[in-house]
Amino acid sequence: MTTSSPPPTARLALHGIRKVYPGVVANDGIDLSVSPGEIHAVLGENGAGKSTLMKIIYGVTRPSAGEIHWEGQPVTVRDPAHARELGIGMVFQHFSLFETLTVAENVALALPGRPDLRELSRRIEEVSARYGLPVDPRRTVHALSVGERQRVEIVRCLLQQPRLLIMDEPTSVLTPQAVEKLFETLRRLAAEGCSILYISHKLDEIRALCHSATVLRGGRVSGHCRPAEETPASMARMMIGKDLPHCEHSPAQGDGEVRLRLAGLSRASDDPYGVDLRDLHLEVRAGEIVGIAGVSGNGQQELLRAISGEERLAEKHPVQICGTEAGRLSAGARRRLGLCFVPEERLGRGAVPALPLVDNGLLTAARSQGLVRAGFLARGKARAFAERCIAAFDVRGGGADTAAQSLSGGNLQKFIMGREILQAPKLLVAAQPTWGVDVGAAAFIRQAIIDLRNRGCAVLVISEELDELFEICDRIAVIAQGRLSPPRDIGEASMEEIGLWMSGLWPGAETTAPAAAEAAHA
Amino acid sequence: MEGNLFTAVLFATVVAGTPLILTALGLLVSERAGVLNLGAEGMMAVGAVAAFAATHHSGSPWLGVLAGLVAGAAMALVFGFLAITLQANQVASGLALAIFGVGLAAFIGKPYESLALPAVPPIRLPFIADIPLLGEALYNQQALVYGSWALFWAVLWFLYRSRAGLVLRAVGESPAAAHAIGHPVVRIRYLAVAFGGAMAGVGGAFLSVFYTPMWVEGMVAGRGWIALALVVFATWRPLRVMLGAYLFGGVMVSQLFVQGAGLQIDFPSQFLSSLPYLATIVVLVAISRNPATIRLNSPLSLGKPYRADA
Amino acid sequence: MLRLEPRPQASRLMTWLSPLLATVLTLVAGGVLFAVLGRDPVEGLRLFLVAPLKDLYGLSELLLKATPLMLCATGLAIGFRANIWNIGAEGQFMLGAVGATGVALWAGESESALVLPGMLLGGALAGAAWAAIPAWLKTRFNANEILVSLMLVYVAQLLVSWLVFGPWKDPQGFNFPQTVMFADAALLPVLVDGTRLHLGLLFALAALVAAYVFMYRSHAGFRMRVAGEAPDAARYAGFSASRTIWTGLLCGGAAAGVAGMAEVAGPMGQLTDKLGLGYGFAAIIVAFVGRLHPLGIFLASLLMALLYIGGEQVQQYMNLPNSIALVFQGLLLFFLLGADVFIRYRLRFGSEAASA
Fold first, then answer.
1. Nearest CA to A142 among A270, A271, A294, A303?
2. Domain CATH code at residue B97
3. Is the pLDDT of residue C221 over 90?
4. The domain defined by A258-521 carries CATH number 3.40.640.10
5. Which residues in chain B have Cβ-Cβ distances shorter than 8 Å to A95?
6. Hey, what CATH topology would domain A12-240 get?
């Protein structure tokens, strides 16, 4: 957005940035420099300190030590408002939009002064046309798809004419096709002189887009590189210090019995901001892993709650678990049929943050493991069970008396996985099983899911990570706008095709025309 | 005769609804910023006592109103310090404020219990007060009644027309997002809470200086809680607060209906007195039965503490 | 420079030190208040803290006052732990008194040993029934239990008033709003001769033990705890939300009802319209200061009872309104909520960078 002739100094330079949270060093001695017009990747796995670093640059939090230079001048970024005055814009991974307000109001909130909404709407349309980011300024945000919301965020940043744009994991909410469009926009911005800090853990994307990269590991810089000159394997080694682990995956064992059947599952969402499920059909058999791909916010949450029993249906037959029509059964009753479930949110849903692991074991395993006798807790047995989960699933950083909230994301996820798998389920449903988990733990969890399948369990995995689904699934289906595509054998499916389906465009899909048009943009 | 009764009932309804409007509109603003302050009863009580004392010593009811306003805001700031700065549980902090405020008002008010204030004459608006039936009821009222109408328009304009109101609503929906785009969440919430307290204080002042010019322990009689219910009933919208407040005002003066209608049934007075409380329950049930109504209208962050650096 | 720094883990020690800190701060503030009012702070605090405990009778009065607080707070704590905000214990207490009085009046001069158990049952059931209203409206219509239970306090007050001014008024009572004095069989036996301390204390202690077993040993108590800590986790695990609401409110109502019964069958010996002494509201403070734990509630109810008696003392000897006790109680809860910040944060000296 500025002139394209680069000034001699770096736009942003960090020297020795250090951030200490109680008990954790999140950033330690970080140096980083971005030139005008450069797309610079910050690469690292979950917990490497990327988010903390970006929060420091954007003024959300202060560094404990170190210096920030902005266009050659040392600065202290006081708060996000100050960052924006300097010319730093940020597109958040979890959007900072207001659901109940219109697009124009959302943009107005981020601009100084008191912009006239009509004039502003015109400018929004102008910028969105110029950068290929279609948004309608009059619509209310809660009615927008996740992809549209991201475009609103980007447009909002661009209206402030930033000289540095921070993108935090921007592609996790996009279909592969939409990722391409985003990259075009970003390249165009860079060509106009805007610097871009691109945070990601996806190696292919970084190689396709970024001019240079800083790799973080354990809060420190583990290397600088030019992504185009590297291989994914060499960058992975910089990122995790060793080669990327792979799971052992043999083909599915024949035709098992049907353990989960969705027979015309429809449900209007209780939440006015939710997605209605429309006539879903699916079968998951013993000994196979079925994956459901999709961009978040397309009905995954609603589907999971309808299967788990957290939301009951009005009818019995649309959800059948191990041969029983379970639509009206409670979550507890469905567990007794052999269902175990790993939800997406670990803290607050899969586990009670303040309670120790012993109690978190009791949470779902009380009945199946006989941890309750005549209404009273069998503390000794509960402890033994929690310790079994800890040992079998290599949970580190605490014992049975450690509160769930003090474990790292990966270790807590391993504990929850262990708790559900050690109950020997007939059907396991897992949502985003490796979301926000470090690479080592993710590989462990994927292998555990595959091993469970090999022992004859039926597994349903709902994930937004296509790579993960292609790695572990036997069959894959796609959810879009509350509808479910027919499943595909993984050997016959391609990423491109599934990506296209994620817009709701699978053969025989009966999407209405405007919805399909909108989805094509999403 | 019929007409006189109508005018009398309408007049009494408007008077009875006024403290509810003042308090509920203040609470509405603070809840729109995401802060649930259950201490309205305490703030009203302290406002009432402060206003009574100030009026008694100064002779000026307007100094009394000012004292009520300041006292209510001061109480709200104590709550704000706990709930906003220290991030204590908002429900517990609000209950603490309610209990403390009622106790403090009883303590301060003890010496004033047997005193009375001269009644403040109403202000008769020229011309429109002569409208048959309505004029006497609506336009020959206490100044604060007109004040409550002005407050209604001011809140309406602020919330939906001003930029500050937009920011306030944004903070109430998602403080984290508001902080991320550079709005001072803590300051905005403090101001909203203080405004809510100030208006509750004025509501209390109306009770002790204008409505029944005296102080009796327990005279707020649950109006703070009713105002809280009113905000829910109104689904956080000012116009419905007005309507709801007058509805409740009508219920509170229902004795007038009964006496005026000349009913000779031996009705226990306790039953009539319990009507406002029962009505509160009824309207709460009516508005809450559809969870989507509440979900769509309530400020999304209501009652949740906000941590800047989390 | 002083600043707050988040602790990596909530401090268990501070969880229990915080009520002590709050007590100390309340006393300091109380001393300041006495000084501002032109009274001797030392003498004021002595009247509050020491004077009530100087003899056996004083101690018995303390336990007598603590009994309804203990009962109400124990019931409330069960609900509060599950985020069920029953703040209408005051009303449930009154209904308990009404239920017990109903049985006592019906029994009349009967000397049956069943009168007291009948009154106990009547009180518990009436209290629970009053709490069942918010429970039903919450589970069926999603109505906020805070406001409903609170509104019912006023209704209960008016109900008591109607009864003692109307159908239950003592015909020989010179038109005072009160019932006849109960027969001996309808009065709780005194525990220590020469005092007013009655059997109700044992009810309260039994309730504390039962609550402890329920909260920490039973699966139902565990489910309530999960519902309070993380409602989504409770739903995920398949714990019934409406059962949690019913349990929380019914326990609170029944316990408050028993407290109401113990009040009319104990020190009062009849039902009057001066029944509401704010025990139901004070019990909210007791429950919080007692950390929603039975042992804590036991101690906190003694402290609160001390404040009640201290209020009467300063009224008598210092000519201050006894509502000063309410001010102290409110301050105690304020300071507690404030001191609780140290459970999650600790004080550090110096700037952030220096400690890094």
1. A271
2. 1.10.3470
3. yes
4. no
5. 177
6. Rossmann fold (3.40.50)
